[in-house]
Write a structure and sequence with these properties.
Helix content: over 70%
Number of helices: 23
Distance between the termini: 30 Å
Order of helices and strands: HHHHHHHHHHHHHHHHHHHHHHH
Membrane topology: Multi-pass membrane protein
Protein name: Sodium/hydrogen exchanger
Structural class: mainly alpha
GO molecular function: potassium:proton antiporter activity; sodium:proton antiporter activity
CATH class of the largest domain: Mainly Alpha
CATH architecture of the largest domain: Up-down Bundle
Pfam family, one: Na_H_Exchanger
CATH topology of the largest domain: Na+/H+ antiporter like fold
Shape: globular
Largest sheet: none
Subcellular location: Golgi apparatus membrane
Length: 570
């Protein structure tokens, strides 16, 4: 015990004294990896890169004159007003429904119908173009709506429970998403090839499969939170949904590169996938660790306004860095949020911790509500190309591809899992809870390729799939849970607003989680992760380094006896 504490103190003192060198070395190593992958892909694409020094200086250009369209500004203002008023009514509606104990219907379904009602009213009054002018395009959707939702999911995640199921979550989120995309894409291609429904070219079909593989179980997570289902089911579904969006976007970008007359080699999507996946992870970790180090090294906590302002800015920085480097902003901000929540939050003042948590949750809630209202409005505002056969086949393939993901991977996991198995009930709920939502629809809005009819079919089919999964699967989850008598399913409160974590629960759970002194002992094999976290990263990046080392030493002493017989529990 004393030897361990002495060794830990020596390591801590060495790191604290040379912390800046460690940060510089890690930063240079990460930058080297990312630039190497970027240059490799650029070389394979054989793109000419013009020297920025040879270009005219910024001062050589006149300031552009932008002609202001007053009618468009008026329509945009009215359109945004309709959205804000609808959001206000939805927030108040959720409050009154929760207050009167009407919480048996997920909020997202109510928001979708609110969007449909508003969109229908605007269309009947001839103002559909006004609402349409305020609808964000794909770039605006990913820049302003999606990042807060993804960030809050990663930031408020219970790190202990997540890491306990890390290996199954990774398999379902990465391998499972690839399986889903390939099965759906291959199925929709073969069906069209034989003359049934709309015909998709091969890589168009795979791109369609990639975007539709993005699982967004917002309603199901609200149900699980409310009913307190068993921890294994909750975090398998939650963890998969959080990581799945980023993987789906990476696949989408990789396959979309193959659409067009000039197809690169088969190896380019693989390199692109690795570049985006690894690069986004490195950017997210590096940015958040740097922010945590700055918070530790300064006295920003003495000024809550400046502290929260800095924290809010660096929270979303990984997203824009990744987008600027042609990586996945979703992946970057997700990893960054998890890292910032683990290392950055302990450096905040108590006011900063509470304020930032509630701010992130409020922004994410408004974003989620906006997304579902947007889906309802899109149903009545867009000129759709409804191919009924393609829609029905797509819904069937969504269910089939989800099954080919969940059941085989669950079998493999149970084959080598020494602890609690993934039961048949849990597997069925995981299959049933594969809802589609914001990510899939946003990707469909800018479907690549020159065929406008194909793009409209993809948008309409994606919207139909989303509405089917949200209303039918999301609305039916409660009945399925009760029918199967899932362990732990007690209370019934399906309101997203009512089930969101409040300040008191945050104070009890999230702050404690953020100040955990070690990553839980998942397996004996990855104990080096705990050692790295407790002996190096925590002392370097957080203020409570001494307490962290003492807690880690105590944990090592308590777990020393059982570590020899420890098996891999996944």
């Amino acid at each position: 015990m004393e030897d361990l504490r002495r060794r830990s103190a020596e390591i801590r003192n060495q790191i604290v004294s040379q912390g800046w060198r460690t940060v510089v070395i890690l930063g240079l190593a990460a930058l080297t990896i990312v630039l190497s992958l970027a240059l490799g892909i650029q070389y394979l694409l054989k793109e000419d890169v013009e020297c920025p020094i040879c270009q005219p200086a910024l001062g050589d250009y006149d300031a552009p004159f932008v002609e202001v369209d007053e009618n468009r500004q008026e329509k945009l203002g009215l359109g945004i007003t309709y959205f804000i008023l609808t959001l206000c009514f939805c927030v108040l509606g959720s409050y009154f429904l929760a207050k009167n104990s009407f919480t048996t219907l997920p909020d997202c379904i109510i928001y979708v119908f609110a969007g449909i009602i508003v969109g229908t009213g605007l269309r009947l009054t001839g103002r559909a173009d006004t609402a349409g002018s305020a609808l964000p395009n794909q770039q605006e959707f990913f820049l302003f709506i999606i990042p807060p939702i993804i960030f809050e999911a990663g930031y408020s995640m219970n790190k202990k429970s997540f890491f306990e199921e890390a290996i199954p979550i990774f398999l379902f989120a990465v391998v499972g998403t690839i399986i889903t995309a390939l099965v759906f894409g291959g199925g929709i291609f073969l069906v069209g090839f034989f003359g049934v429904g709309h015909y998709f070219r091969f890589y168009e079909a795979l791109t369609f499969g990639s975007l539709i593989s993005a699982v967004d179980p917002v309603a199901t997570i609200a149900i699980f939170n409310a009913m307190k289902v068993n921890k294994t089911l909750h975090y398998l579904v939650f963890g998969e949904s959080v990581l799945n969006d980023a993987v789906a976007i990476v696949l989408y970008r990789s396959f979309s590169e193959m659409i067009g007359p000039d197809k690169p080699g088969w190896y380019l999507p693989v390199l692109t996938f690795l570049y985006i996946f690894i690069g986004s992870t490195v950017v997210g970790i590096t940015t958040s660790c740097t922010a945590a180090f700055v918070l530790k090294s300064t006295e920003l906590r003495k000024n809550p306004t400046l502290e929260l302002s800095f924290y809010l800015l660096v929270a979303f920085l990984p997203y824009f860095i990744c987008e600027g480097l042609k990586m996945s902003g979703i992946m970057g901000i997700l990893i960054g949020a998890m890292t910032l929540g683990h290392y950055g939050m302990p450096n905040l003042s108590e006011t900063g911790q509470l304020s930032s948590n509630q701010l992130f949750k409020s922004i994410a809630y408004c974003g989620e509500a906006f997304v579902f209202i947007y889906l309802g409005l899109a149903l009545t505002s867009f000129n759709h190309s409804w191919n009924v056969i393609t829609v029905l086949i797509s819904i069937l393939l969504v269910l089939i591809s989800r099954a080919t993901n969940i059941y085989p991977l669950s079998f493999v996991i149970n084959r080598y899992r020494r602890g609690e198995k993934i039961s048949q009930k849990t597997q069925f709920i995981m299959w049933f809870s594969g809802l589609r939502g914001a990510i899939a629809f946003a990707l469909s809005l800018n479907f690549p390729g020159g065929n406008e009819e194909t793009r409209r079919v993809v948008i309409s089919s994606t919207l139909a799939i989303i509405l089917f999964t949200i209303i039918v699967l999301g609305g039916g989850t409660l009945s399925i849970l009760q029918l199967l008598r899932v362990e732990g399913a007690t209370a019934i409160n399906l309101s997203t607003a009512a089930s969101r974590v409040d300040v008191d629960r945050f104070e009890e759970m999230d702050i404690a989680d953020a100040n955990d002194s070690y990553i839980p002992n998942i397996t004996a094999k990855n104990s080096w992760i705990r050692r790295l976290d407790a002996a190096i990263l925590k002392p370097l990046l957080t203020r409570d380094a001494v307490e962290s080392m003492e807690n880690f030493a105590e944990h090592e002493e308590e777990g020393a006896e059982g570590e020899e017989d420890e098996e891999v529990p996944f």
